[in-house]
Amino acid sequence: MGEAQGSGKHPYLVAADLRTADIATKCSCPSRKFPCKHALGLLLLHAAGTDNWQELAVPEELNKWLEGRAQKAEGGRQKAEGKEPDPAQQAKTWAKREKKMGTGLEALELWLSDLVREGILAARKRGYGEWDGQAARMVDAQLPGAARLVRQIPDLLHQDSGEALTAHLGRLYLLTQVWKNRESLSEGERADLYAALGLPLDKAALIPSDQTDWLCVGSVTEEEGRLTVRRTWLLGNGGEVALLLDFAPKNMSPSAGFQPLHRVGGTLAYAASAFAQRAVLDTPEGDIQPAPLPRHLALPLADLPRYWAEALAKNPWLERVGVLLGPVYLPPEGWQVCSYDGYAIPLEEGVRGGYLWYLRAAADTEPAYLFGEWNGQSFYPLCVSPQSQTVHEERP
């Protein structure tokens, strides 16, 4: 540990815990970077082996931090050894976090009310620092999901109609209101609320599926903040849709996935939700055999708005659904998916360009079946099966 003199009157207290390979740092400075420059300086001094170190009593606030790390490590050790955690300690920890989250959501409600009262034009004049500051306050309140939604606001500010921004703010405000009545929710609804707020997946509440045979229908890899996230979609024999999520540090790829339009075996369990979609696949057996998209399970394009509305009615924070559409076609001009009875939906921006030409070629100018992601505004196709062909090789 050490002291770093900043611009203020009192120096910052900075420390590094090197007792395990999981190095952690702590500093009393207001920086949002981890580790901060003061912690990096302390680590560099330690690595350099300078001889001006002294032995002093550890301050109380650092003792609390070290004790918390020790408790966390003990909990991980017990879990690895198969020991049951202490229910009383779990309840105490949850009560502490619940109080912190409630305080953060009360502040968010007030902030949103002020934002709407001032109007969209006033919001457009706010600097990015204000949005980042509010997101940081949500992180401090252990609400990473709310922080993520706040960070998305600047991207919606300058749309002419303001419709997307209004809907987005509505979902954020709904979080603050539903939190107050969380005890009256069903188990699935409460799980959706916690997921929207950013709480980790409760693996103890997973609901096993009887089905062990699935068809991989594509995946998408995106950068989200400091993480790389891969969404893999599976389709069951009865039309069940399962979403697998894999995470890796930014600029790194998750572990190897499954090949599209190939069968996947394994024990699957759904996360608790009012609209079951996210799942965990245990002991997977991938790439068993190729298979086409099951045409008899396809949803007509005309029924997509109803399907989306029913999904949102169950989980209003849903960002996308996986859906099999068909028969449809991709017109030679324009960025749309069209049906033969006159319905059309726009393709997502990322589909335009070379990938769109690939999709058109794979459809082979025939009625095709597409599986992809629908977010209420645009469709992102992940794989295609023409009627006349059994299996098509998909993009990597």
From TrEMBL:
Residues 70-86 have a biased composition (Basic and acidic residues). Residues 12-47 form the SWIM-type domain. Keywords: Metal-binding, Zinc, Zinc-finger. InterPro entries: Znf_SWIM. Residues 70-92 are annotated as: Disordered. The keyword Zinc applies. Transmembrane segments: none annotated. The keyword ATP-binding does not apply. This is SWIM zinc finger family protein. It comes from Deinococcus lacus.
